Amino acid sequence: MNDTPPQQRSPQRIALLPGDGIGKDVTAEAVKVLEAAGARWNLPLELVSLPWDADRYLETGESLPEGALEDLRDNYSSIFIGAYGDPRVPDMAHAKDILLGIRFGLDLFINFRPVKLYDPSLCPLKNKGQEDVDFVVFRENTEGAYVSIGGNFKKGTADEVAVQEEIHTRKGVERILRAAFDYAVAHGKTQVCMADKSNVMQYAHDLWQRCFAELGEEYSQIETRHLYVDALTMQMIRAPESFEVIVTNNMFGDIVTDLGAALQGGLGLAASANLHPGRVSMFEPVHGSAPKYAGTGRANPMGAVLSAALMLEDLGHQEASAAVEGAVIEAIRQGETTADLGGSRSTSEVGDYLAKAVS
Ligand code: NAD
Ligand code: IPM
Ligand code: MN
């Protein structure tokens, strides 16, 4: 166990896991931008590629090598992931081991997903502008429906029964709610909205209700708002300006952040951080491996690049992080984008533009 905080390790070693499909394409561009920022600000970054992907899994049967989690925990400052998912592995076995394995194994309980409209032209909503779409989602990242507890009875027969459990612990619920409240306080926000489905999940999501009410009293300066998740999706479209911080469980957070990505211009733009304060964190675009775009030059690398900006910030390089975000904003303004944002540039042309802009 390495007691040195990840940010203070020297050099700041970053594990790069490009993964599958367009994960590889967008990671290559994020690397260009990280290298450019590293050179310009003389950052102590050391990028180390780890070839854990579907190809390797299919060849060797190994997904996450033995000892990998301890190695990441002790010998790196950060982890960057492209995306996982390959049609040849329909049960996502390797992705579960690697992606969820890192989230769970390193106990990265905060999945932080900002939703920010960088340019008014990208908003799919009528009469909404940049000031209307600017909130963050705190997704619980280590419990809920993702715990893989369940099974099949009489599998493959007409009498088959499938059971899949959700787990919600007071400790787990409290710590993600607290993270959301702390973020609100630290960033001058006035409201935290918690979304659940406690009208149906009367045990599990009632725990969220009770914890939220208790913490709301502690953070009395923050307005507490509650929405059932179905109403949340409606309000995200109808009045996105009414949100500052949303906090919710693992699966609802997964779903509503794809919706959030659409509000900001598409999945190609959405960034995320998997965090546990004081420990090695993991950064990744919100999108998946989009196999049909793999290697075609059509993937938008901006979500990956913005995830790299979140990583730079976490590593203490605020100026570099802001410059990378600024380069993305400028590229969008200049139309230096891939087709999903209306441009005609390829994945690597966008990466080259962004790397040059931060150089
Ligand atoms: P996806 O995010 O890969 O793609 C959905 C659609 O969004 C694509 O068809 C494309 O139109 C668009 N899109 C996504 N990323 C884009 C980008 N960078 N540039 C331009 N357009 C982009 O989701 P999916 O099709 O549901 O899943 C494909 C695979 O990825 C599956 O195996 C899934 O399990 C996996 N997945 C992985 C992650 C992850 O690694 N974090 C996240 C989501 C899905
Ligand atoms: C995400 C993805 C993953 C999730 C999948 C690939 C397991 O959709 O990161 O949003 O559900 O968390
Ligand atoms: Mn998702």
Can you give a write-up of this model?
There is one protein chain. The chain is of the alpha/beta class and 359 residues long. 41% of the residues lie in helices and 19% in strands. The protein is built from eleven helices and twelve strands. The strands form two sheets. A ten-stranded mixed beta sheet has the order 2-1-3-12-11-4-5-10-8-9, with helices on both faces. A two-stranded antiparallel ribbon has the order 6-7. Strand 1, helix 1 (22-41) and strand 2 form a beta-alpha-beta unit. Helix 9 runs antiparallel to helix 10 (318-333) and helix 10 (318-333) crosses helix 11. The longest helix is centred in the first third of the chain and has 20 residues, at 22-41. It is globular. The mean pLDDT is 98. The structure holds nicotinamide-adenine-dinucleotide, 3-isopropylmalic acid and manganese (II) ion (MN). 3-isopropylmalic acid is lined by residues 95, 99-100, 254, 286, 288.
